[in-house]
Amino acid sequence: GISQATYFNWKKRYGGLLPDEMRG
């Protein structure tokens, strides 16, 4: 999976939407 820090960065950039590749 991805780290919380990375997840938070994605949330900031993409409004919480992660690409399918990053999911799961």
TrEMBL record:
Protein name, UniProt field: IS3 family transposase
The species this protein belongs to is marine sediment metagenome
Biological classification of the source: unclassified sequences, metagenomes, ecological metagenomes
